[in-house]
Amino acid sequence: MGKFYENSIIPDHLKRDFNVYDRISKLGINLGSEGDWLADLNSAAIASVVFHESGTTYLSGMGLGPGEMNDDPERVKQGQNAAEQIADSMIARLHWALTCGKEGGDLNDVLYTMKALGMVVSTDVNFGSGPAVVNGFSLRWQSVFGGGLGEFSVNGTDQNYSGVHARSAIGGFTGQFSLEPEIIVAIPPELSRSIIKNRGWVFPLPPEELKRIRT
Q: In order of start, what are the domains of the chain with their CATH numbers?
């Protein structure tokens, strides 16, 4: 387990007893390589991850999917598949944001998941499947970090529930994709402060920090 997680405020009886990376491997999630993810802010319009010294960690949204959603079950399934792919990409992004500076933290140091927002593309005023589409994202998060509806739960019970989060899921947007979720997680304040002190609060990295970390 993550060294920061072990020393965190989470009481022992509520801590995970599984390695998040074992679940990632079993689910076939590809975290990519450091070279795939390290970039500098000169070529970034927005930050993809922002760390706060409190431990609150914000991940920007990502849009994906075949296009506008409707209530047809097959179309909803396509949206859920896209949502799962987004979750996989955001988990990989968070992994590299936590590890690239070698402060000693990784995904095992995620304490719990705080809030997700899922925006689903649909101009149909009667569209009611927004929450079902975003479930593809939320349940993937539960599968990795813990939750009663994740793939590792048994009869609705998992060892841990740190992937469960508060959420809003709404439709009514336009765009050439199906949905865009974003998420907020909590990491130990000690880890967040170590990251900020070492390389700043933002990922991708400031140019000079990227150069220093690469060398």
A: 3-214 (3.30.1330.40)
